[in-house]
Amino acid sequence: MNAPRATTKPARYADRIRRVTSASGIEAWLVEDYTVPIVALEFRIEGGAVQDPADKPGTAYLLSGLIDEGAGPYDSTAFHERLDDFAIELNFGADRDGFSGTLRTLAKHRGEAFEMLRLAVNEARLDEEPIERVRAQIAAGLRHESTDPDVMANRAWFETAFAGHPYARPTKGTLETLPLIGREDLVAFRARVLARSDLKIGVVGAIDADTLARELDRVFGDLPARAHRTEVSFGAPAGLGTRKVIDFDIPQASIRFGGPSIRRNDPDWLAAVVVNHILGGGAFSSRLFREVREKRGLAYSVYSQLAPFEHGSIFVGGTSTKNERAAESLAIIEAEIASLAEKGPTDEELATAKKYLTGSYALRFDTSTKLAGQLVQIQADDLGIDYMDRRNDLVNAVTAEDARRTAQRLFGDGRIFTTVVGRPVGL
Amino acid sequence: MNVSSSSGPAAVETQAGPAISSVTLPNGMQVVVIPDHRTPVVTHMVWYRNGSADDPLGKSGIAHFLEHLMFKGTEKHPQGAFSDKVTELGGQENAFTSLDYTAYFQRVAREHLRTMMEFEADRMTGLVLSDDVVAPERDVVLEERRMRTETDPGAQLGEAVSAALFAHHPYGTPIIGWMHEIEDLDREDALAYYRRFYTPENAILVVAGDVTTEEVVAHAEATYGRIPPRGEAPVRRRPKEPEIRAARIVKLADPKVEQPSLQRCWIVPSYTTAAPGEAEALEVMLQILSAPQTGRLHKRLVLDKRIAVAAGGWYQSTAVDPSRLLLYAVPLPGTDLDTLGTALDEVVAELARDGVTDKELQRAKTRLVADAAYAQDSQASLARMYGSALATGSSIADVEHWPEAVEAVTAADVMEAAKKLDPRRAVTGQLLKDEAA
Question: What ipTM score was computed for the predicted complex, to two decimals?
């Protein structure tokens, strides 16, 4: 019994993913699976906070908090009691670029669950009571965050780097703008943005294609065919080579840094993923982890990531280090970025990164919920239904030359824009 | 997982869950296998039955510090070799320290399980520490504490509330340790703690994923099984908490507080210390009070009285010793925290006095039992669920029969559970803005 069981070659993902199109033309990608008796659905519609009226940031976010606060025949309490009675999990959210929803239900309550989703999507009541209540909840959150150093550094970064662009506005709005958002603004946003165009849906679990097709029409069929989004210009972060220090009486400096990146549809995208992984990606082997944390003990957390927003692609990173050593931490981070920009990664770094990124890919969608999210993301990025099968080959195809070129494209001359919250010494 | 059926619209019928198996190796190490054949990956975890509550007096934070130091290499695999291997295999890894346990895990493609077991078994006894790696890692932990606590008044209040609630028992000491004691932790402290607790008798192997019991046991015998037994498992020596018959109020006022909040907490039985059904009744009672949109706290404080923006609670039910249950409320501007506290007490008292409706009771159970069904969707969640239960003294059967035990909770049980939340013995935490500063 010592020999491991022979590894069966996993079936192609594309064979498991089915494109389901409803009678009225609504498309969803489905992975039908009865191992666990649940159904997970995620949908995403383009147009999030970036579509907020310029003087009313926080509109999309407030709307996302109200979609499940009463719909159709149910007021807020009745709606939530019904969800709990059937153990249905229904959540909505808005980020910079999109409006999204997730549904998770036991298979036997699928009918009730889809009906609740239909009501929320089409018939959210937007009653005055929940509007004021949710507004007060968001305001409490904003007050709380207003002295959280990490949030402060992040907000300051976007405000300055994207000055004049919608990305400068906070997704949740501000204590000043939140009271300005009226019911009519929420209704207008919903009418303008929530539409069948640019709607992406992923479904995983105990449901067959025919049933799903009918449910798609029921839930999303009555949405307007087209959205009427405002044009948003493509932005690029400003302030490269500068730092902004925000004085705050705490013993540790919270640091955010970043710069422009390449877009998701750029041919060098996966090379950029590889380069970022080497700089400050998730594993314990990244340059920032080794230099800042492991060798010098300067910080607990240090990372970088790519954020391919629809209207302005960036890389951002962060760390927190005691005030006395903040300058040292930042100097090391800047040196690592400059070194990658100038020389690119070593062959060994490249090989290790590719092994990690390809080997860990399957871990990203090992639950129904995660897989449904992945199906939505691949559709939103327009990568094709066979992308999950091709992706590791694409990562493996990244050459040393690709990595060098892309590091140069990402980090240019190594200049970054940095915000620091705290009392950093020497910055 | 067998779930009993009951009436009502959301009755959970019998549903086949994974067939969990458990064996004990000759050296005393327990091996638990949770099959999940949906994707060819495995979650490999080793749990040690020791956490921050087992830190020696004056050495707070040593369990957590050692967890960091466990990544510093062994005689056989020098610093970085294990992590490099995990990375090379495309795996994910991490570790965590809790009050009662410390756990290490990797998630890898199924064919790499044996390799992970070899490395993890090696570091159960082979750890090598030099002052060169201990000193910077202690700085990392100090930065971790600065990040989580020293810059956050809410976290500082939380520590003070815990210290007041557990006047004597080590649950009152933060997992990460007190700043001044972390600063003094050294290599010898770490190794002494390591030698005491990192033994096969004290460890539980949990493997969830695309594997069979036979192959996991075979691999375990060839790796962990080669570690000599110590003769017996280490004993957790913890002082018992006295019965404190006093209400305590802990206030923290800081100029950085822009949003005040209130918490009330109590020491209550955990699954390990409770009488049969008692902890389940506390769970159901808490669900009735604190469900996010349908709980009584939300209905009374947020919807009816309009004095709070949010209210809820949690119960640290998986614990070796009597544990804590906490309720909280966030006031609307203009509500003072004393008023809010009185209103919160009334909600609890009403539940203890008048009980629950059948509908409320069924709704709470439905919601709780569904979590067991949803957990089947994630092998990592299942591994954590079983690992934490076993590491705190529950059995596999306890976890498997949990849905039935929840279904068996009666309205009278809920009233009894609510009576445990006596305001005259509660510890109250108030987070306030320091207006004078």
Answer: 0.93
